[in-house]
Amino acid sequence: MSPIPRRSLLKAAAVAGAATQFSWALGSRGAAAAPGAETAADGPVTLDWLEDGGLGAAPGSTVGVPWPKGAHQDDQTFALTDADGRAVPVQSWPLAYWPDGSLKWTAHAVSSGTGKLTLTAGTPAPPERKVTVDRRGGTIGISTGVITARIAKSGATIVKSVTRGSTEIARNGRLVLLRQPEFEDGDQTAVRTERFDGAIDDVTVEQEGPVRAVVRVDGKHRKGRRGWLPFSVRLYFYAGSDSFRMVHTITYDGTQEPGKASGDFIRGIGVRFTVPLRDESYDRHIRIGGEGTGLLREAVKGITGLRRDPGAAVQAAQFAGEKLPDPATWDQRVTTRLQYIPEWGDYTLSQLSADGFALRKRTKKGYGWIPAGGGRRASGFGYVGGVGGGLSFGLRDFWEKHPAQLDIRDAHTDAAEVTLWLWSPEAQPMDLRFYHDGMGQDTFPEQLEGLNITYEDHEPGFGTPYGIARTSELLFWANESTPSAERLAQQVEAVRVLPQLAAPPEQLIGAKVFGPGLFSAPDRSTPAKAKIEDHLDFLFTYYKDQVEMRRWYGFWDYGDIMHTYDTARHQWRYDVGGYAWDNSELSPDLWLWYAYLRSGRADIFRFAEAMTRHTGEVDVYHLGQWAGLGTRHGVQHWADSAKQQRIANTTYRRYYYFLTADERVGDLMHANVDSDETFLVLDPIRKIRTEPYTPDRHALSIGFGTDWSGLVSAWLTEWERRGPKWQKARARVLSTMETIAAQPNGFVQGTGLYDLDTGRFAIAEEPVVGVSHLSAVFGLNELCAELIDLVDMPAFNEAYYDYCRYFNASKTEQAARYGSHFGSLILFQGHSRLDAYAAVQTGDDRLADRAWDKFYNSDGYRESAPWKTEKVTGSTALVAGSEATWVSTNDTALYGLAAIENLALLGDRMP
C-alpha cells in the first residue's frame, strides 16, 4: 500500500450536487450466472433443522431466508406448513432489501415444529396462544400463553418474576459481578472481593409478537457511585412456550495495567434467580447435568438408601421426581424419623477447564461440603423445584467457555437461589493484562525490528482489553412440576445445541446473495472435482480436530483458531507474536461460511457460529478510542498494536446475521457504519510511512483493499437492512465506488484521500501503482461481486476487473498496462478466484485458464501436498493426536475460498 503525498498527488474531487444524487442506475444488470447455478424459488421453500430432533424443548427458532431479486415486495406475508400440510404459526419480518425495494432476506420465527417446514407466500396462521406485551405500570409484562415474565424498567432486578398460571416459578432475576482489586502471585496473598449488581439504564421492546417477543435491557454493574462493565441483555419469548432465552453481553471497560497487581480483575460474572419453594423437602428435587444427557437426580431430603425402607414405590417416585404418597402410608419406621434425615440445600458444579468438572453439596452455609461426583465435560444444565413447580436453567457452551459454574443455594428453605456463573468465582481472576514488558520496543524502528523476529507489531499501551466484549447464551424453563427424565434430556439437549431452522443450500445459492455465482453445491462428478472436495473436507476436519486436541477453548478464546504451526515443537505457535491466535487473518470466517452455504452441513455451521461470536466480540473494540477497530493476530486477542478495519470487517458477521436474524450481531454491524471516523484516531500504516502525514478530516489516507472492504461492507449492510443510517450508508457505497473507479489507476492506485463529510475519495493527479498482496484477501472479491450485481456502474466494474486481470499477470504484463510492475507479490493461489470471477464476468478464456493454473501451480497448497495427518504420541506433544505440519491457516483460508469459488465459477473449465 503506497502512501500518497497530499501536496503532490491531489486534485479536489468534484462534489457536484448532493452526495445522495447519482446518475447511474441501481440493479439494472446482473453478474454472469455461474455455470450450472441453482435457480432459487420465490416459493415454496423447504426449511429443515440443522440437527435431528426439531425444536425439542427450546422456546423457538428464527431463520433467515433469501429471495431472488424482485420475487417479493415489502408488504408480502408468509405462511408455514408442516409435512402433513398443517398450518404452523409464523412471525415474519424483512431483514434486507434489494436496491429495487424487493425483499432480499426475510426472517421467520416459529415456536413449534419437528420435521421439515414449507414456507410460502400467504397468510400466516395465528398461534393458539400468542405472545403479548403489557407495558402498563412499572414493568413490562410478557406472556407466552403459558408463562408470564415481568421485566423491570429500572433498578437492580431485570426479571421481577416468572409465573406459570398462578404459580410464581422464579423471581428477582439479576446480574452479579465480583471484582477483585488485587491480583498477586504467591502464597501470602489475601484475597478480597466486592460485589456489583447489574443496574438498568434502558429497556426497549424490540418485538412484541404474535409468535416472538424480544426485550432488550442495557445498563452497567454498579456499587455505590461506581458503574462499570456495561451489559446488554436480550430476552426472547415465543408463543406457547414454557421457556425463554437470554443473550447476555458484557463489554470490558476496567483497568488492568501490565506489571501492576492492582486493577479491575473480574472474579465472577453471573446471572442469578430466586426460586420459591412450597413443597415438602422430600418433594423438592435437584437436577444437575453431567456428561451428555446424564444427570445428578436427587431430592433435598432423600428417602432412598436409608436403613429403613419407605417402600419401593415411594423410592421410585422420588427418583422420578413425582409427588410422594402421604408419609402416613409409608413404613412408619421411616415416617417417624424424617426429622433425622439431612436436607441438602446447597450444590455447586464447577467446570474450571475443558477437561474436568467437580460436583459437591452441603446441607447449608457454615457446614462442610462433600463431593457428589465429577466428570469431564458438564452440559451446563440444572433444575431446582418440586412437584409444585420449578426452574430449569442452562448455560450454552458451558465447558467450551470455561471457567463456568452452577450454584444452587438454600434449597432447604422457602426460597432457593440459582446462579449461572459465566466466569466461575472459583477460578483465577480474569487476568487480561498485556503479557510482556515491551522489551525495549519504544520507537517505531525498534518495533519493526520486533516484528521481524516474532511477527508481533508491538507498541506501548496498545495491548489493552479496554472495549472488548463477550456474549453468552442462557435458557430458562418455568416447569409446572419436576420434569420427567425424557423432558429433562430434551432441555439438556437444547442447552448444548440450540435448535436452528435453516434454509436449504439451493435457496442460498439460487437467490444470488453473498456474491452471485461464487459458491455452488459440492460436486464430485469428475475425479478432479472430487479431489478438491476431499481436500476441503480434510481441511475442515483437521481444524475441528485441532480445536479439541489443542484445547482451543476458554471464555475469551473459544471460537478462534491458531495462525501458524511450529514444526520443531509439534505445536501451534501459541506464544510467538503474530503467529498465535488468528483473529480473522485472510478470512477463515469467509471460508467457513461459504463452506456452509454450499453444503448446509450442521458441523460447519456450528464451527462458523462460534467463530463469528468470538471474532465479532473479542477481536474488536466496542468502547474507547479504538471503538470500531479490530486487532491483528497475536498471542492475546487484543495484544497487537495493529488496530484495523480489516479485523472489524462487517463481512464476517453478515452471514450469521442473515441466516439467523441474530440481533446482537446486528448491533455489531450497525456500530460499524461510522467506522470511517476511526481513521482520524489512528493511522493504520503509521510505522511505515516515508513522508509526513497528519490525519485530516477532509483528506484521510484510506486503502482501497483492506480498509475500504471493511468500510463498504458496513455501509452495504446498513443500506440493505434499511437501518437508521441507511441513506448515508448508501451514499457512501456509491460515492466511494465512483471515486475509486475514477482514480488514474483504479484499484491499482492502492490508496486515496477520503473526505469524511462528502464520503468521496479525492482523484489523484498522477497514477500510482500501490498493490498489496493483502488488499483482496479480506473479503474484497466477495464484496465487489455483490456490489457489481447490485449497482450498474460500468467504470467501477472495469476498475475491479482490471485489478483481477493484472494481480496474477506477469510483471511484464503489469508494466505494459500500468507503467510499472506490482513488485514482489505472494498469495497467487488465493487470488486465482479473482481470475475466475473476472473470467466469467468478461468472457475471457485466457483468464479462465490462468485461474486453474494459479490454483494448481503457484503457492499455497499443491496437489503434491501430503493431504493427510501424522500421529503425534509419547513425549512429542502434551496430548496425543495428529498434526499436518504443512498446514497454515493463511493457506487454508485462501485455498478454501479459491477452491469453492473456482469450482462454482469455472467448474466446467477444469484442466
Layout of SSEs?
Layout: H1 6-9, E1 10-11, E2 25-26, E3 45-49, E4 61-66, E5 78-81, E6 91-97, E7 103-110, E8 117-121, E9 132-134, E10 139-143, E11 147-152, E12 159-164, E13 167-182, E14 194-208, E15 212-223, E16 226-238, E17 243-251, E18 262-276, E19 284-289, E20 295-299, H2 312-320, H3 332-335, E21 346-353, E22 356-362, E23 370-375, E24 381-386, E25 389-395, E26 404-409, E27 415-423, H4 444-454, E28 469-479, H5 485-496, E29 501-502, H6 505-510, H7 527-549, E30 565-566, E31 571-572, H8 588-599, H9 602-617, E32 630-631, E33 643-644, H10 645-648, H11 651-660, H12 663-671, H13 678-681, E34 700-703, H14 706-721, H15 726-741, E35 751-755, E36 760-761, E37 763-764, H16 780-790, E38 791-792, H17 794-807, H18 811-818, H19 828-842, H20 845-857, E39 870-872, E40 881-883, H21 889-906
Helix pairs in contact: 7-21, 8-9, 8-21, 11-12, 14-15, 15-17, 17-19, 19-20, 19-21, 20-21
Task: Describe the protein in words.
- The structure is a single chain.
- This protein has 21 helices and 40 strands.
- With 911 residues, it is an alpha+beta fold.
- It is globular, with a radius of gyration of 29 Å.
- The longest helix is centred in the middle third of the chain and has 23 residues, at 527-549.
- Helix 8 (588-599) runs antiparallel to helix 9, helix 14 (706-721) runs antiparallel to helix 15 (726-741) and helix 19 packs antiparallel against helix 20 (845-857).
- Strand 14 (194-208) and strand 15 form a beta hairpin.
- The protein has a 20-stranded antiparallel sheet that branches. It has a 4-stranded antiparallel sheet with strand order 5-8-3-29, with no helix packed on it. A 3-stranded antiparallel sheet has the order 4-7-6.
- Helix content is 26%, strand content 26%.
